[in-house]
Structures are given as C-alpha cells and as structure tokens.
Amino acid sequence: MNDLRKELLKLLQKDDRIFDLIQDSATDGLLIWKHSNPRDCWADAKLQQTLASGMGVRQGDDRPVSLFEIPSFSLHLENARKCFPQSQQPLHGTVRAVAGSLPSLRLAITSMCAFSESLGWLVLSGFRRDDTLPELPRLVTNTELYQSLLNSNAVYVTTIDLEGNYKYVNDHFCEFYGLERSEIIGKSSLSGVVPDDIERCLQVGEQCFVNPGMPHPVILRKFSRRDGVKTTQWEFTGIADENGVLTEIFCLGYDITQQLKVQQDLSVLVSNMQDVLFTISPGGFFTYVSPSWTSMYGHTIEETVGRSFTEFIHPDDFHICFEALRITSETGVPVPGGVEHRIRHKDGSWSWSNTSANIDPVSRDIILTSHDITELRDSRERLKELAVVASNTTDYIVITDSQGFITWVNKAYETHTGYNRRDVKGKNPLLLLRGPETDPDTLDRVWLHCREKKVVREEVLCYTRAGVSYWVDLKVTPVFDDYGNCTHFIAVERDITARKEADKELKRIKDIQEQTNSVARVGGWELYARTGELYWSSTTKEIHEVPLDYVPDTETAIQFYKEGYSRDAITRAVKEGLAHGTPWDSELQVVTAKGNELWVRTIGNAEIVDGVCVRIYGAFQDITYKKQAEMAIKNSEVKFRSLYDSTSDAVILFDRNGYLDCNDAALKMFGIDSVETFLSMPMGDLSGLNEMGMEGQKTQGNQHVQAVYEKGSHSFEWKYKRFGDSKESFIAEVLLNLMKVNDSEIIQAVIRDITLRKRAERELLEAREHAEAASKLKSEFLANMSHEIRTPLNGVVGFTDLLMKTNLDETQQQYMSMVFQSANSLMDIINDILDFSKIEAGKLELTPEKTDLLEICGQVADMVTYQAQQKHLEMLLNIPADIPQFVWCDSVRLRQILVNLLSNAVKFTSKGEIELKIELLQKVSSLDYTFRFSVRDTGIGIDPQNQRRIFEAFSQEDSSTTKRFGGTGLGLTISNSLLGLMSSRLQLVSKLEHGSTFFFDATFRAIEGEDRFEWENVEQIESVLIVDDNAHNGQILKDMLANKRIGADYAGSGEEAYNRLSSGRQYDVVLIDCQMPGWDGIETIRKLRKLEGPVANQPVILLNDSFDEEALSGFSNELDIRHFLVKPVKIQQLFHALSDLGLKAKVPEKRAKMPAQDKLSGETYETGEVKILIAEDHKINMLLVKSMLGKILPGSELIEAANGKEAIEAFRRTSPDIVFMDIQMPEMNGYEATREIRQADGPHVPIIALTAGTVVGEREKCIEAGMDDYLTKPVLKETLEAAVRKWLLKMN
Predict the structure, then answer these.
(1) What are the GO MF terms of this UniProt record (predicted)?
(2) 99 and 57 in contact (C-beta within 8 Å)?
(3) How far apart are CA 732 and CA 728, in angstroms?
(4) What is the CATH number of domain 138-262?
(5) Residue of 986, 897, 1002, 877 lying closest to 942 (CA atoms)
(6) How large is the average pLDDT for residues 814-834?
(7) How many C-beta atoms lie closer than 10 Å to residue 805's C-beta?
(8) Is 421 left (phi over 0), alpha (psi -120 to 50) or beta?
(9) Percentage of the chain modeled with pLDDT above 90
(10) Are the C-beta atoms of 1234 and 1225 separated by less than 8 Å?
(11) What is the average pLDDT value for the chain, to the nearest integer?
C-alpha cells in the first residue's frame, strides 16, 4: 500500500475537515501530495477514471502524470505551495484539460493542508466536475466559434461590464496571466495594465460606445504573474441590445510579445550594421540603403535612392560588377566570395569594397551587402615585404587579420606543425595548436592582450598535427595603419622545447623549489585563516617601503593597494581564497608608505586541510619597470618593426664572393664594431677557417655551403669565435636558406648561440651519471648491511627466544624479555630503513593474495594489546558484520601499515582507549569495495602546524617528541608510500590534547562465495545485556549483535547491571567486562548468583583484557561462567560463544575452542628417522638452528656443512629428508649449491633458504635456483617449526 494512502487513512481518523473535503469537494477524485515535492503523490481510482475519460488517456498507476502537464493545475500547485502551510484556509480553483477534438474537461479543485508526523506537510486536493460556466454574449454563443473560444489555448476571451470590470474571462486568459478566475471576475479590467497604456485603453473603450458592433484594435501591455510584462493584440467590440443600447464590451486577444521582440531586434541589427545593406531595382536604380552607407561613403540616403548604381562604381570595375549581377540574376545564386570593386566617396576618393548579391524572390530586387576592404588590400601589399625573411627564418611566423584568423604562415611553421598554409587559412591559431595540457589561462591572457591591441609575450605548450607537444616563446605584435586602426597581428614563435626540458630536469636534480628565484624583487607572504596572522618577507617590506620591523595585518595590507580597481580586486581575491581556496595571479597597483605608486604582481595559493582553508600564501613582485616598458611600447608611434632587425639571432647574408649584410644581433654576437668592418672580413674568418691547421674544417664548411645550394635549406651545429676583447669560441646552431634576389642566389645564415644550452646538457649528463652511481652504491651498501646486521641479530633473537622457553626465575625472565624486545625493536628499525630505501629506489612492489580481513585485524589488535594493557589502555576492535571477510590484497603490507598506526597510537597515548575500525564506504562494482581503515586514540594529539611534517621521513612532530617517545620517524612515511602503491594516502584528523585519528581509504576486490562465518543453534538467543564501563566498546558489541537481529541493552557499571537484573528484567545471556571501576565483573557475578529465581542461573560470558587460564578456570567453576572472551572481542569469537550456548541443552558443557597455536604444539611426529642437513657458515647461527631443531624434532639426525661444497658432499653422502641452506657462504654460495643438488638424480628433497638479505627479488632468485621455501633471519622457533611441519607433511 502506498505510504501516502496509509497516511490518508490516519488523517481521516483524527481530522474531520478531511472527511468533509472528500464528501463535498472530491466527488470526481482525490489527490494527496507532498508539499515539498508535488510529484510524490497518490491519486484515487475515481480521479484516474475522470482523467482517463476526459483526456482520452489510459488509466495509469497511483501517480497521474498527465495531470501535471495541465497548465491550470500547475498554476494551482504554485498558489497552493505559496499559501500553505502559513494559511489553513482551503484554496479553490479550476482545472481545464483539452485533449484534441474532445470537449474540454473542467474540474473545480479545492485544496487544504494537513501535517503528518512521518511525512511532514501534505496537501489534499479534491476534484469535482464543473459544468456551470459564466454566460458569454449571445453574439458569440450563437456561433460555431463558441466551443473553440471556450477551449482555445491561443486566444484570450473576456467581457467587460459598463463599469469597466471583468464579467467573463476564458481559461487561457487565466493560465496566461497566472491568475485564478476568482481573482479576476468583478475586478477592474485596468488592473495590471502598464500605466503608459491605460489612456490608450480608455480611448478604445470610448470608441466601443460610439460605434458598437465594430471591432476596435489596440495593443496593450499587462503584467503577468509568471513572466512579467506581456504584450497583447486586442480587438474590443461593443455589444448592444435590441434597442441599440450598449450592454457590455466583448474582447478578443492574442500574445505578440515575441513577435515585437523579433521586430525590435531586427531594427537594432540593421541600424548597427557595420556593413552596408542596399537594394537596387532590375533596372539598376537604388531603392534602399542602410544608415551605414552614409557613415562609410558620405552620401545621404535622400541623394542616393533613385539614382543609378553605376554613378558610384569605378569605370574600370563596370565589367566585373555587371557580370556578377548577371550570374546572380540568372541562377539565383550569389558569386562565391563576392566581388572586389571600388566605390566613389562623396569627397571624390575611391574605397575598395567586397560586395555580395542576392535576389528577392518576391520583388525581384537585387539585395547587396558590402563591406570596406581598403585597409585589407593595403596591408596585403605591406605584408609582401616580410615574405622573404619570414619564409626562411627558423622561427615559426603566423600572420592573422584584425579578427585573429590566419592569413599566412611561413615554411618553418608548416614543416614543424604538419599543417600547410591551405589547412590553417581562416582558422584561429590559439584553437588550432592547443592540446590536453595547454594552459587555458595562458591562452586567455594572449587573447585578452590581442583584444586590447597590446604586444603580448608568453610561453605556450602547443601541439603538432600529429599530437606531438612542443614549447614556444610566443610574441604577438599588432600592426596599425596610418589612422591607428589594427589591421593585422604578427606572431613569432620560437621553439624552446629543448630549453624547457633541460630546465625541468635541472630543477628536479637540484631540487629548486622556490617559486620566486627566477625573478627580481620578489617577496613572499602568508596569512593564517584561524589566527589572522600575516607574515611579510623582507623583500615584501622593501617593496612597500616600510621598516624591517614593521608588523602587517590584513586590513592595512589591503589599504596599500590603490583605491579603486586594485583594492577591490585584491579584496575579492583574498575573500575567495579564504572561503573556497581559489588561487589568483594578478597585476595591480600599490601606493607605498612613502607615497610612490608601483605596479606589482601578486600571486596567491591556498592550503586546504580536510576541505577547509587553513592558510593562504604566495609571492609579491615589483613589476613597475615591466609595466613602464609595456606602456612605452603601447604609446609608441612605431607601427611596425622589421622582423630582420628585431630577432635576437644573428642573421648574415652572403654569396659565393663574400659577405653582403648582417643585423645588429650578428655584430653583438661576434664582437664586431660595425657593418663596414664585417663586410671587409674574408669568408671563413668568423670560424677561424683561414688559420693554419684548419684545412679539414674548411672542407667541412664548404660541404655545408654546397648542401644549401643543392637542397635549398640546411641546418647544422658549428664552432665560431668572438672578436674584440673576448677571443673565446662558442657553439652555434646554424640554419642556411637559399634565396633568389634579382636573379642572384643569396644565402641567408641564421645563427643562434647555444653555448648555455650545451653547458646545461653537459651539467645534466654529469648530474645524472653521479646520481646513478650513488644510487648503485647505496643499493649495494644496503644489501650488504642487511646481511651483516641480520646475521648476528639472528643469533641474539633466536637464542633469546629459546632461553625464554626454559625454566627461569622471575628476574631472569624479566631480563630476557627486555633483551628479546630490544632485539626485535632493533629489527623493526632495520626493516623501516630498508623499506624506506626500497621505496626511495622505487623497488618496493605489492604481492596481492587471498586475505582474511577479520583475521588480519584480529592479529594486529592482539599484537598491540599487551602494550596497551601495560599502559592500562582499552583496545577496541570495531568491524561491522557486513564487511566482506576475504579480499585480494597484499596482506603483509596491509598488516605492516595497521601495526604501525596502532603502535604509534599506543606510544602516544597515556590514558583512554585505542580503536581500530573498518568501514565499507561504497561498492565500486559487483566485487570491488572501497574500505576505510581508521585508528583512533585519545592521546596527545598533533598541533595543526606540525601535521604535515609528521609524514616526512625521519621526522616526528618535534624534536621533543623523539626524545620523549623514541622511534626513527620513518613509520608514517613508509605507511604512506605503501598506501601510494595501493592508490591511497594516509589522512589525519587531530586535536591537541584530545587525540588523533589516522585513516586511509583503499579499494579491494572481494572473493565471491566466501561466507564470513557460520552460526548455528541460536534459537534461544534474543536479548543480551552488555555490561562495560567503556561506552564505545558497548556500542561496538551492540552493533555486532544487531546484525543478527539480537536485541541488546547497555549498562555502564556492575551496579547498574545488578539493579536491572534484580528488578526482574530477563536476558538470554549477559556479556560482562572483568575490569571495571566500582564493582568489577567477578564481584558483580558473585552478587547475581546470590539472587533468588532464574537470574541466579543467568548465563554469563566474561570479557577480560588477557587470558589467565589458571585464575579464570577457578572462577568458571565457582560462578558458572560459561565462556571467557579476550578483549578486543572478535566477531567470530563472539558468535561462536553464543552458538555454543545454544548447544548446552544437547551436549555436555565443553571448553572454548583451543587456540590454533596450542593445537599446533600438540601434534606429534615420528622423528627418529628424520635427517636434516644444515648449511651455515656462521657458527652461532649453526648452533641456533641446531638447538631449535633439537627441540622441534627431538631425536632427529642433524648434519652440518660450513659452505656450499660441504653441503653438496653431505647431501650425496647422507641423503637428508630436508635441507636448510644459507645464501652467503664461502667457496660456494647457497644458489650454486642448490643448482648442483637439483642436477642430481633421485627424489625431490625440500630445500629451505635461510637468508639475512631482504632486497627486492631475493625470494624469486631462491625459487629460481631450485629452493622450495624462503625464511628471513632472524628466525624464531615458531617460524622454523611451521616450515618443518609444512614440508615434512607434504613429503608424507
């Protein structure tokens, strides 16, 4: 049943008004809908039937979609939502539905509102057929138009009485103006009419009295509630009785708002056209000219219309103009591209024009549009002067018209980009060369400067036709005519790809991070959002001309900006940066403390933490000289600068006889004082080819010159020397182009000094070689150190482990425990450093495998539980039951991350609790899930300004933290890097002295068909009482139980639980914490057992921080405690215990499941005949392995080998059942020994590697050599025992 229908039944029982509404006003249907969302509604069957019959549609579901398409119903909805719930009075209206040729359906609608506790405000709308209509004049009702006017959706019909009030309005009138009929009838017809139109309306009304029966047209504007002012074409007709006395005024109207707008727009368009629009008759006489004819050619409209077209055309152009008109007249199609011809100006001058012609199909007049192209033709001639130089330069040259569309590109552009001149002509160069990584802001700046007709220079990332990216240094210069009008733009693009790549590589190697090092007079600043503290660097203060001890604040800093645009702009930028993190880069004006006006470039960026801006910072640069230079260029009278003289490359012209010319850049590059001196120099002097011993180079130079004569163009690198004071040589990039001038062959040489680039390339190569050598030495050192440290540490850890399992007194046990913990701590530090080194080298890889999330979380919680108990901390494990149990991930690295986070939480928490929590964020696909792992503590917290620093290598919050808590400071760095391999990152929420939460989100693939856990025999478990002083732990247990629909109550103390149970409240089982303030768990159970009745036998499960079997067994027998669970409680353990309670009536009581490690220890083997070969060159490690194997397999035969050769001989001699092989040994290493053993015939004997190395790929090398398993030193007894049992069982 629909929720709204259910709610209607409830409302009927408590609100009589609704019953009255249904009885009186809903005879043809009822609709109930939500005030917040009218589409969420329910309609009764009667309403659906009414709509189906009246609108000719099929009866649908409970939501009548067709009703919402009726304009009058939409109007009623709007009014109802505005009225309700402020007003409780019913709202009345009319709904009119018209469907094709069917008669219109009219329904009276009455709506009222009612409040629902579950759904909020609801509106009930009752419908009943409305067959009563106000009478129209007989003049209309007696005609066939009556029904059409009644149903019309295009024509308004109204009648007005002699008082000027509305007597009748049709439905379309109400819908169009957004009014109910009740709001109109009896009201003045002048209501809503624009005041300026009232007088005109009254005048037409008077004409109806004077001439009744005659229609009187009038255009009136009237306000619509929905769409503002609407314009309507009306006809008013006075209706008179049989005596000729006027009784009423009948009005018909239709909407012309859009029609008038189109006419106005067209008029404005023609008035503002820059081109000339004119028409001529078939005889060639002007019949119309647009106003732009006068402004462009000086002739007035009066002196033009009626005159012959030929009077204004140049005689030399008669033929081409009449030919074009003839073609257009005969074919009806304009000549493609129009016709270029001259038109006479009133002052007698001639202007070039491009004219296109069309034929008016009705009047057969010729319609022409013409625009002035005089400047375009002039500029074409000027551009030819640039063609020779621009065509042959190595720079890419692009010329556009004044609108920015390409008219010409040089050969270098075509060669590099892959576009030919025909492809790009008429296209926008900014759109043509942009690509996926092109900075849109840079293109916007170029476009903005071009629009303002300014010189602009930018570095832009462009793309060739094939999609290959390249960088250019772009300079765009506008070209102006004698009147100051921009006619063209010339863009010079110099390829700087090599420089960009070199800059990028040098920046990475030298770690140049400062944004402002490359510019002069650049300061820095920071503003902290929380405190409002503002910092200025010394350069920033210098630019503002304030003392070095000046302390700025936000308000005074903004006041330095010049009043007006600059101050408003920086105010908006700072506000947006603090509110939304929006960056900015602006050029603004400031007034210094000494009253000097400067131009500055201000750059701002935001630091966002958890979606909130905590700091904005940036750079502050004095760009006054740059701006002054821009202003000087802008105000310069120079309209065009020769490309030949402006390029920074040396350009030299020569032929077979000698040098012909050079530019200033060439004189400067070679250190020559004048062009005359240069021309007097013999050919070859620039390279020293005329000196002794240069015969080979001279021959090579002649070959280059010959190549340009053969191919037309040739490029190469060449060594030159400088003259004047500096006699140094330099490397240059040379481009030779062959040109023909006056039938003579001239070679143009474009020479670019690439000394700095060559030097940068050498530095880059040397830096890369040094870095690679250092990385190789570092890897070798770490591999050797790993082996050398782990080898002795193996003995320390292993023998300590064995010694702790012997009979020691309490003091000895404590000392050995400290030794064991210290050795493992040292191992953790070594592992951290090695992991960090692998991460730095990019050699750490993930190994996904089937992983039990519940088991891993339980393991890591157990690993830190002991540390937490020593500090009296509560350890919480919060894993919802809907978490998939088995996923594909690297279990080792996931465990490493969680252990690190939990260990840190315990380390930095002195009181309170630690919580490990898993959440299921979203289901990415059918099997992929995104999980959130979080570790929360109640420790010291982290200051916001130090929160980023803790993720840096070898760093903690501050140096005092290191001294107080210890550690390498690598844990979080390694964890974050491991998460990076999982496409995740570590995040932090922390408050000083309140604790921290570290969390990360990771997506893993679940393993389909794997059940989380099984649970049986629980028919009697329906309610549970949880007793724990930690409310978080209580909530976690409640959530676990709720997943299986088990109700749970929480009590925060033993006293509260006792009161609840003694009052008669019954539960199937009680979960009670052992350690609580006041009454602890044991004391509470004792008191419960002394009560009378069923509560004395209440089943109890005791929760404890540790499993002291001897002590708890006594309590179990004494107090009838059914189960003991170790905290933090795992979901499997909880439900297994509850399942076991369900078996109590069927099976004798039994102990909880034996731990896996106890079960393993209880297994026995026949070991008397087992032979084990141990290959180990380190005597202590040999003794350690023998001691462990002696305890694991007592009575087995242990065979020793001190190196690989002895191992091979012993293997052949004794035929062992299993081999433990060290890797690094003298004479022959473990790899070689294993390969030789595998070459021998006989049964396959397991060989297990014992290695102190941990470098990437070592495990794979062992397996490749023929080994079966891999153990990393230091080896514990449990690890060794697991390997022995695994491989011996496989053999059996």
Answers:
(1) ATP binding; phosphorelay sensor kinase activity
(2) yes
(3) 13
(4) 3.30.450.20
(5) 986
(6) 68
(7) 11
(8) alpha
(9) 26
(10) no
(11) 82
Cβ-proximal residues to 131 (8 Å cutoff; 6+ apart), any chain: 106
pLDDT-derived band of residue 1146, with 50, 70 and 90 as boundaries?
A: very low
| Cis previous bond, 1128, omega within 30 | yes
Per-residue buried b or exposed e for 972-1009, using 16+ beta carbons within 10 Å of the residue's own CB: bbbbbbbbeebebebbbebeeeebbbbbbbbbbbbeee
Region 1165-1291: CATH code: 3.40.50.2300
1222 neighbors 1200 (Cβ within 8 angstroms): no
Angle at CA 956, nearest 5°, toward 951 and 962? 160
pLDDT in tens, 1072-1099: 988 888 888 888 888 888 888 888 888 8
Choose among 1009, 1008, 1012: nearest CA to 1044: 1012
Architecture category of domain 3-129 in CATH: 2-Layer Sandwich (3.30)
CA atoms within 13 A on the CB side of 562: 13
Residues 1042-1078 pLDDT 10s: 877 888 999 999 999 998 888 888 888 999 988 888 8
Q: Which residues lie below 8 Å from residue 726, measured CB to CB, with a gap of 6+?
A: 671
**Confidence at residue 914, expressed as pLDDT on a 0 to 100 scale:** 92
Beta bridge partners of 124: 32, 112
Is pLDDT at 563 greater than 90 in this prediction? yes
Assign 922 to helix, strand or coil: strand
What is the mean pLDDT of the segment spanning 1280-1292?
Answer: 80
Where exactly are the structural domains of the chain?
3-129, 138-262, 273-372, 380-505, 521-635, 658-753, 847-949+981-1012, 1014-1148, 1165-1291
Task: For domain 1014-1148, give its CATH number from 3.40.50.2300, 3.90.550.10, 2.60.40.1080, 1.20.1250.20.
Answer: 3.40.50.2300
> Is the model's pLDDT at 657 over the cut of 90?
no
Cis peptide before 1274 (omega within 30 of 0): yes
pLDDT at 343: 92
CB atoms within 10 A of CB 941: 18
- Per-residue pLDDT, averaged over 717-739, amounts to 86
Nearest alpha carbon to residue 1180 among 793, 833, 868 = 793
Angle at 912 between CA 911 and CA 918, to 5 degrees: 135
In terms of Cα–Cα distance, which of 1169, 1195, 1071 is closest to 1123? 1071
Mean pLDDT score, 195-213 = 90
Pairing, β 1218-1222 against β 1247-1251: parallel
Mark out the alpha helices in 871-981 (DSSP H runs).
891-907, 959-965, 971-981
For residues 426 and 337, what is the distance between their CA atoms, to the nearest angstrom? 13
Lowest mean pLDDT among 272-276, 514-518, 869-873: 514-518
Indicate the CATH number of 521-635 among 1.20.1070.10, 3.50.50.60, 3.30.450.20, 3.20.20.140: 3.30.450.20
Instruction: Please give the structure tokens belonging to residue 133.
Output: 């209509």
pTM for the model stands at: 0.37
CA-CA-CA-CA dihedral for 252, 258, 263, 268, to nearest 10 = 140
| pLDDT exceeds cutoff 90 at 697 | no
Residues in the chain: 1292
What distances in angstroms separate CA 1086 from CA 711, 1080, 1119, 1155, one per listed residue? 108, 10, 7, 28
- Once rounded to an integer, what is the mean pLDDT over residues 3-28? 87
pLDDT category of residue 411 using cuts at 50, 70 and 90: confident
Q: Where are the alpha helices (DSSP H) in 279-373?
A: 292-297, 318-331
Report the alpha-carbon distance of residue 720 to residue 221 in Å, rounded: 84
- The owner of tokens 């109550």 is 1049
Q: φ and ψ at 638, to 5 degrees?
A: -70, 120
* CA 535 to chain centroid: 31
